[in-house]
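BUG: 3D viewer hangs when loading the predicted structure for this chain

Environment: internal workstation, default settings.
Expected: structure renders.
Actual: progress bar stalls at 90%.

Input used:
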Amino acid sequence: MPKIKKVVLAYSGGLDTSVILKWLQDTYQCEVVTFTADIGQGEELEPARRKAKKLGVKEIFIDDLREEFVRDFVFPMFRANAIYEGEYLLGTSIARPLIAKRQIEIARKTRADAVSHGATGKGNDQVRFELGSYALEPNIHVIAPWREWNLTSREKLLKYAAKHRIPVEMKKKGGSPYSMDANLLHISYEGRILEDPAREPEESMWRWTASPEKAPNRAEYIDLEYHRGDIVAINGKKLTPAKVLETLNKLGGKHGIGRLDLVENRYVGMKSRGCYETPGGAIMLKAHRAIESITLDREVAHLKDDLMPRYASLIYNGYWWSPERKLMQTIVDASQANVNGWVRLKLYKGNVIVAGRDSKTDSLFDPAIATFEDDKGAYDQMDAAGFIRLNALRMRIAANLRKKRKG
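Structure tokens produced before the viewer hung:
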């Protein structure tokens, strides 16, 4: 076991990380610094500070990272229209590189020689946290307790907590049985009945969104203003990135938008079933594709679509800080220079419907050419004949060859 003097623990104050805190102190005989990130999970964070103090922690960091999270991680990802395996909007995945970044910054500030996290050995998060840590600080030591200790069940964790007098807030009877992760972009649910992919999630599980059946019976229209691919205003009101996402979450949740039930392929090799609520993200994806439809060149748009699955996989698998993701981001961001204008959406019972889009400065849509009426010579339809014959040439040659072979 390496000699560790000081470790920065990503700390939530819950059962797992509270046990980890004490375990690190006892096992490594080291000083522990706790770091709690506010990325919009909607929980009171001061109890984490109080609990860390009770466990003897002297250096406690609780950082509000909401604006940085949306501005520097969520918005760049949505410029790429990134979705994993056709459906997942990467809500958990995109938060991990920010947490790793801040954790390493704190390690440098406090002169810690190690970082630690509470991710299990079966999941993706261990990969995401550790790839981020090594990319930013290559010689840092990473302690992953779930890969070292023998506390392999909730019952063992509770016994350890009781033995060492670690305060644990027990959930009320009938409380949520799910493993959940939340931030400004989404909330996820795993475990218990969701481990059977044949079973429908309980309606009572969902926390952010109304069921479509109970959503308002009247549609609601919203206008989103874009500048260089990012939303800068909603219904004419200028908003910061975090406020944009907060507002869209409320609007989407009200109308039952953004629910997802997915069986996904984890990077570690297994299939996993999870449910997600991403109301604001679902609205953002639809709107961004709408504004791009009139401002992006055809081949640029198609190139972005070709790159997107690889880009999304890099984020899902923990490679946000990799050189290839940074290179792809440069391409994506360059494509957004003219993605300016507005999109009007209709929100209704789980649906996001594009009701209009325009750009006064950057629209490539030319009504004079696209019209079905008289275009006054703007487009010579006779040109299409030669275009079609040239594009058909290779197929005509192949067809003639097949005829010769049959003859």
